[in-house]
Design a protein that fits this description.
39% strand; globular; alpha+beta; 109 residues; 6-stranded mixed β-sheet
């Protein structure tokens, strides 16, 4: 099975999102039944397509570690915008948990 590709966008100290690279409109997808992020969407077969929030708390990451949807191995491109414009920060392979931990590390640095 091919790894899905996601984009991480961190708007420094403001908000962040993880979205499937091919996603055009997250509103077309159902919400998660667990509400730990401001916006969280998934496919009908329960694959994550979009996560968004204005903070990143360790307790939310801990909840995600208990949910198999967040253990999917994916490819990520991470961008950061510190007010001076968007810049590619890194590219990596990992789980969605890894992406959340990456955001936590880079969100308020």
């Amino acid at each position: 099975m091919l790894e899905r590709k996601f984009v991480i966008k961190i708007y420094k100290d403001y908000d962040w999102e993880i979205k499937l690279k091919t996603l055009s409109d997250y509103a077309l997808y159902p919400e998660f039944e667990v509400e730990i992020f401001s916006i969280s969407r998934q496919t009908l077969d329960r694959k994550i397509v979009y996560l968004f929030d204005a903070s990143i708390e360790q307790e939310n990451i801990d909840v995600c570690k208990e949910d198999s949807r967040f253990n999917e191995l994916c490819k990520f491109e991470a961008f950061i915008d510190d007010g001076a414009g968007e810049e590619l920060l890194s590219e990596f392979d990992g789980t969605i948990i890894d992406a959340l931990e990456y955001i936590q590390k880079n969100f308020a640095d």
